[in-house]
Amino acid sequence: MAIQFTSHEVKDYLKDKRKLKSFLVDLFAAEGQGLKSLHFVFCSDAYLLEINKQFLQHDTYTDIVTFEMGEDPAVTEGEIYISIERVLENAEKFKVSIAQEQHRVIFHGALHLCGFKDKSKKDAALMRSKEDEYLEKYFGGK
């Protein structure tokens, strides 16, 4: 199993990637989802907008785009693209640290790959609750 973090022309702000990789393995196990590979790409708004247009036909800025690349729904092979510009803006907007916002988005993408949705109000509330749960576990109440 491989978890990778790549920055495409941006700074990613992540500390202790080894701890985060281990935590993500545990998150997938806790959610009953197999994990074969996971690649996070931290990028600019412009780069993510092009991905959003090309693959999802959405002409809007977003903080994250998640792709399941594998054929077995029980075992994740995923790619997650995260706009660092959106992370920085949202951290300021929601008055949280950059680290907390970046990890929220990372966990959000992982939860999508575990089968969680966020289109309806009910699904979005559950997603937010799961993000909060994993942030609490990761940061230990800090």
If you had to describe this structure to a student in words, what would you say it looks like?
The chain is α/β, with parallel strands linked by helices and 142 residues long. The chain has a single domain (2-139), classed as Collagenase (Catalytic Domain) (3-Layer(aba) Sandwich). Helix content is 50%, strand content 21%. The protein contains five helices and four strands. The chain has helices at 17-30, 45-56, 84-93, 98-113, 121-139; strands at residues 2-7, 34-43, 64-68, 75-83. The chain has a four-stranded mixed beta sheet with strand order 1-2-4-3, sandwiched between helices. Helix 3 crosses helix 4 and helix 4 packs across helix 5. The protein starts with a strand and ends with a helix. The mean pLDDT is 94.
Question: Short summary of the structure?
Answer:
Its EC number is 3.1.-.-. The protein is α/β, with parallel strands linked by helices.
Any descriptors?
4 strands, 5 helices, 50% helix, four-stranded mixed β-sheet, 21% strand, alpha/beta, Collagenase (Catalytic Domain)
Total number of helical segments? 5
Beta-strand portion reads 15-25%
Task: Give the helix level as a range of percent.
Answer: 40-55%
Order of helices and strands: EHEHEEHHH
Widest β-sheet, arrangement of strands: 1-2-4-3
User: What is the 3D shape?
Assistant: globular
| Structural class estimated from helices and strands | alpha/beta
| Low-pLDDT residue spans | none
- Specify the CATH architecture: 3-Layer(aba) Sandwich
Pfam family, one: YbeY
Enzyme class: hydrolase
Binding site for Zn(2+): 108, 112, 118
Keywords: Cytoplasm, Endonuclease, Hydrolase, Metal-binding, Nuclease, Ribosome biogenesis, rRNA processing, Zinc
